[in-house]
Amino acid sequence: MLPILLPPLAAVVTAALLAWLLREGRALPLDHPNERSLHARPVPRVGGVAIFLVALPALLLIQWNPLVTMLAAALAGLSYLDDRSDLPIAVRFGAHAVAAAVFVLAALPGLPLVAVPVLVLAVMWMTNLYNFMDGSDGLAGGMALFGFGTYAVGAWLAGDILLASACATLAACAAAFLLFNFHPARVFMGDAGSVPYGFLAGAIGLAGWQAGHWPLWFPVLAFSPFVVDASVTLARRMLRGEKFWRPHRTHYYQRLVQLGWGHGRTALAEYALMLACGAAAVWASRTSPSTQAGVLVAAGVVYLVIGVA
Predict the structure, then answer these.
(1) Contact, 167 vs 149, CB < 8 A?
(2) Which residue among 115, 146, 207, 306 is buried most deeply as judged by most CB within 10 Å?
(3) Which of 171, 207, 196 has its CA nearest to residue 6?
């Protein structure tokens, strides 16, 4: 019964912990407005602390992939230090690279040698793009809810109850966080939340693929609202010769907020897109290769239309 009861219990504990932190905290790390920000006042960024103080012990409790769980815990701890004191970029990226390499080499045995650096870079990119996209009320929490919810359904359909429970727990903790993060946000996720969520999105996606639970494109489509926005924005900035590593406000979700949609309406529109992508990924993964290809082409056309608009 534990794998079934774990997600709702984790959600309740996460919500209670966040409420306590916001009520009793006196020296919480704050997200101060800067050139990248869409908010005008400092907001505590301890959402990730509450999420992963609950989610990671829960995953260890059901004994789902301790290696991945411990790597996520290490990234969460380092990212919390970054939230408090702005660690050098070399330290952060170095830690992301080590975590991705350890995961690929230890948890994905039997890969062709040429695939190893490609997948290490893919996990690193997923880790960082999630952080890039954590900049609007309700956005990163919503992607965790819908993205890991999609993983949970995919794992359940494949008969992997432990993986389904782990993903549902990550989604449930995100749902509890959204109670405090939807517009107007009282708390932000911070790097302590967005970095391990990004790592887990990449790691679980690849682990499920190697286990035969879903095709390789499945995690990309499930998290495509973040993958497409971050990847296209980075490519556009590089092609323009901009200093792409500097903070900016040119992601598509940022532009929607600035165009007058606001945080709430932008989040709801993104949720609709996330739900559609997740449902399409689950349905298409059970169909023929030709149908899967058609779904991916259709998703590409939809994103092209959205981007142009």
Answers:
(1) yes
(2) 146
(3) 171
Q: Which of 68, 81, 71, 73 is nearest to 56 (CA)?
A: 73
| Contact by Cβ (8 Å): 176, 17 | no
Which pLDDT does position 24 carry in this prediction? Answer: 76
C-alpha to C-alpha distance for 152 and 38, rounded to whole angstroms? 32
The fraction of the chain above a pLDDT of 70, given in percent, is 93
| pLDDT at residue 99, as a whole number | 98
Residues 6+ apart with CB under 8 A from 203: 68, 71, 72, 103, 107, 123
Distance CA 101, CA 86 (A): 24
In the beta sheet, which residues pair with residue 43? Answer: 31
Quote the tokens at residue 205. 């996606």
Give the C-alpha separation, 116 to 137, whole Å.
Answer: 36
Long-range contacts of 265-270 (CB under 8 A, 24+ apart): 266/136, 266/139, 267/136, 267/137, 267/138, 267/139, 267/142, 267/182, 267/183, 270/139, 270/142, 270/143, 270/225
Do residues 85 and 116 touch, judged by C-beta distance below 8 A? Answer: no
Residue with tokens 């290809």: 293
Rounded to the nearest 10 degrees, what angle do helices 191-210 and 115-132 cross at? 150
Q: How far apart are the first and last CA of the chain?
A: 48
Find the farthest-apart pair of alpha carbons in the chain and give their distance in angstroms, rounded. 57
Q: Phi first, then psi: what are they for 185, rounded to 5°?
A: -70, 135
Confidence of residue 298 (pLDDT cuts 50, 70, 90): very high
